[in-house]
Amino acid sequence: MSGGVEMTEKLPLSLSVQQEVQLRFLGPSDVTEVKKLCREWFPIEYPDSWYEEITSNSRFYSLAATHHARIVGLVVAELKPQAKLNKEDGDLLASYYPPTAQVAYILSLGVVGDFRRIGIASLLLDSLLSYLTSKDRHDCKAVYLHVLSTNTVALRFYERRRFRRHLFLPYYYAIQGKARDGYSYVLYINGGEPPWSIFDYLTHCSAVVTKLQPCAFPRQVYTAVRNIIQRMLSRSVTEVSHNS
């Protein structure tokens, strides 16, 4: 019963805080406060020029959540064509997308400790996704980010929001002189699609063979090819289920 009392006492506080939170874009006057927050939240040291860029350059989507004028959370993202992605991120989209196809990279998403677990991170992410899925941003086909492999809180958060793990990035981060592993996570939007896997190719081949008329294709060859593809598909499904 004590758990029910605790929830009853805490819930109104969370709701009142949520109602008082406001969103606004970052500006040059926020550099000092944003720098302080990022140094508290993230183990990576950013140069001063980075803070100046995200608070003044229009190519960044830099949104702050404020409570009584105090910044309690922020999200920073950048739109870029896939041709300008780093090598490790170059295969986010299917091969038929042109180099000019846009993707959004989440550089930072953080919330002050006392304001966590009341929906502020979700509010910031929802605002970003709403912007990226608007009619004017239909050419943006994916949203992606990098995260430490040991940051289980962040991993669960993004997985709940339908981001999928894309790549394991060994020794991706250098933190306090030590190499740390990371992951890339991606969410496909506006009809965006990932590169085809071997399973996708096998499924496509199976569908093509199934549609062929036996009279247009020697029956024995048709049956043999179909059986081979079906066995390969079954094996692929089994391997996927074992690896999951």
Describe the structure.
The protein has two domains: 13-195, Gcn5-related N-acetyltransferase (GNAT) (Aminopeptidase); 204-238. Helix 6 packs antiparallel against helix 7. Helices cover 40% and strands 27% of the residues. It has 244 residues and is α+β, with helices and mostly antiparallel strands. It has a seven-stranded mixed β-sheet, with helices on both faces. The longest helix is centred in the C-terminal third of the chain and has 25 residues, at 219-243. Helix 4 links the parallel strand 4 (102-111) and strand 5. The protein is elongated.
Task: Please describe the structure with a list of short key phrases separated by commas or semicolons.
244 residues, Aminopeptidase, disordered N terminus, 7 strands, 7 helices, seven-stranded mixed sheet, alpha+beta, single chain
Summarize the structure.
By secondary structure, the protein is of the alpha+beta class. It has helices at residues 2-20, 31-41, 48-54, 120-132, 152-160, 198-211, 219-243, and strands spanning 21-25, 60-67, 70-81, 102-111, 140-148, 164-175, 178-188. The chain has 2 domains: 13-195, Aminopeptidase (3-Layer(aba) Sandwich); 204-238.
